[in-house]
Amino acid sequence: MLKLTFLGTSSGVPTVRRNVTALAVHTSLNRDWWLVDCGEATQHQLQRIALSVHDLVGICITHIHGDHCYGLPGLLASAAMTGRKKPLILVAPAGVKAWLDATLQHTELFLTFDLVHVDLAAQAAVHRADGLLIERFPLSHRVPSYAFRFTFEHTRWKVDHDALRARGVPSGPAWGLLQQGQDVPLADGSTLAAADFRTLHRKRAVAVVGGDNDTPALLAAACQGADVLVHEATYTEATLQKVGPGPQHSSAQRVAQFAEQAGLPTLVLTHFSPRYDNREGMAELAAEARRHYTGQLLLANDLQTYDL
Amino acid sequence: MLKLTFLGTSSGVPTVRRNVTALAVHTSLNRDWWLVDCGEATQHQLQRIALSVHDLVGICITHIHGDHCYGLPGLLASAAMTGRKKPLILVAPAGVKAWLDATLQHTELFLTFDLVHVDLAAQAAVHRADGLLIERFPLSHRVPSYAFRFTFEHTRWKVDHDALRARGVPSGPAWGLLQQGQDVPLADGSTLAAADFRTLHRKRAVAVVGGDNDTPALLAAACQGADVLVHEATYTEATLQKVGPGPQHSSAQRVAQFAEQAGLPTLVLTHFSPRYDNREGMAELAAEARRHYTGQLLLANDLQTYDL
User: Fold this and answer.
1) Is the ipTM of this structure higher than 0.95?
2) Interchain contact B275–A (C-beta under 8 A)
3) Looking at beta carbons, which residues of chain B come within 8 Å of A69?
4) Are A11 and A269 in contact (CB under 8 A)?
5) Minimal Cα–Cα distance from A49 to chain B, Å?
6) Residues of chain B with C-beta less than 8 angstroms from the C-beta of A49
7) Nearest CB to A106 within list B44, B78, B99
8) CB distance A69–B107 less than 8 Å?
């Protein structure tokens, strides 16, 4: 039911094959989608896939660095120019909101829709709607950075077709009425009680999407019961040692070790330093992660959708 | 000697084939180049051609609308991340500078080079250097908008090879010394005077690059002696009539009529509404312009270089 479509997987600067960070979080249930981070040219990437900015419910920005938010002005301007009216939720640090306000002011950008800002620092549960809860978890980076935990829940009444057939009720309108919770009188004078033939089925999918972060273990609580963790793996451990702790990023090894310990079924690595944007580089990151993680390991590629 | 490389030729929003506005102005003389306007993802387009952000001398922004400047933060950030130290000239409206200042502040962007702002409103000659003069000319648009006139001048001493051969001086070191202006004593005791054998050759190329503008005739003075005019042709005349004067753009017809009257040898149309981004649309714009202009007509395409 959960789908992740990567719009950008490069750290800092774009490469020819990888744009800077952006990720679409959506489901097979409807056309709604959420965007986590919005690097420059995210709107350009959207033109190459089937997601429309008019179905975008909200945008979550993990932190204020440019490679995670410089695509916002253009995306919002294009949404306005193509006639968006529906309000758009923006879960973001106050600095991002202040920057957008400055952008609106200085570049005479007029939005045709409400931009509803939710301050990332103010609360842990940043969005709550029918079937979706989004919570944020603080990370460790050069600037305040957060992960988002998306919990999608879908419930549906199902009628027991076998039981109904056994009771002598073939496929027909009665099935639909029972599914809606209505008792159904039969021709023989008896009644089929909905409660006897329908049961509630729940589907749940939990995705944790991290921002820039040098301490994956901070996500221990967020990852409890999660189906997938999407986390930056900017470097290999050897490069991280060489670069030093200054940039406050993670290595493939550190993320893999954490994911193994947390028992995560699926780990998606992203936000790769441009130095790895070749066959050998990606193989090196993958091999390092595989040495420490036994679950399903994916290294994200631009414009690829992962059905989970 | 003059080269124009279009990085974006779409108006308002990008399309799959055309990015929003940006144009590289350069010459065959050296690697220096100037950028006129910097729509979102201009740095992405640069990755697909041979121009490097490290050879970029300056950026001229015609006006503050987002499709002409939203690529600035990312371009500057990437120049800094890849180690640029050389100062960068920014000829731009004060609003663009204020927006960049807000960007630096809110998104913790630290530049590794000086950004030297030249206020577009303050003076007509916005840049003067050895061999290059850039002047700006006010246009008519919803916000203050300008055209830039680039005058490149290249002078070079040339020695008269035929005259030297006739004088009995074959190709050799003497030719180089004469070219540098040194008189050359000969074995027979006589002297070759540089003044007798070298002459100054001048090359001059003038390009006028307009911003958004509904009144091409405002460029009459700018276009005197110009080799080429690059001007927006957002619509056909029929569409412009339908849209009304509000957006304050030009039609292919209006620009072509002006270029014919001004006697411009070459006219390059750009900044096309996305509705024309197909074979029929471009053919329509071209046919309309050709009905009114007899010079060399070009309709700009992304990533194409025009040698003039």
Assistant:
1) no
2) no
3) 107
4) no
5) 11
6) none
7) B99
8) yes
Question: What tokens appear for B98 in the block?
Answer: 């204020």
Which run of H or of E encompasses A238? helix A237-243
> Which of the following is catalytic: B32, B55, B67, B119?
B67
User: Distance of CA B72 to CAs A90, A162, B57, Å?
Assistant: 23, 64, 14
Q: Which of A16, A40, A103 sits opposite B47 (nearest CB)?
A: A16
Q: Is B16 on the interface with A (CB under 8 A)?
A: yes
Q: Which domains are delineated in chain A?
A: 2-156+201-307 (3.60.15.10)
Whole-number Å distance between alpha carbons of B162 and A72: 64
pLDDT of residue A33: 98
Q: pLDDT value at position B187?
A: 87
Q: What is the pLDDT of residue A187?
A: 87
Contacts of B12 in chain A (CB under 8 A): 78, 81
Cα dihedral B288, B291, B292, B293 sign:
positive
What is the strand order of the sheet B132-138 is part of?
B125-129, B132-138, B146-159, B198-209, B228-232, B266-270, B296-299
A111, A143, A118, A99: which is closest to A34 by C-alpha?
A118
* Residue type (1 letter), B216: P
**b/e sequence A27-49, b meaning 16+ C-beta within 10 Å:** beeeeebbbbbbbbbbbbbbeee
pLDDT tens-digit readout, A115-126 = 999 999 999 999
Which backbone phi and psi does A275 adopt, to 5 degrees? -65, -20
**pLDDT tens by residue, A78-102:** 999 999 999 999 999 999 999 999 9
CA distances from residue A147 to A28, A222, B230 in whole angstroms, order as listed: 23, 8, 47
Lowest-confidence range among B24-38, B83-97, B155-169? B155-169
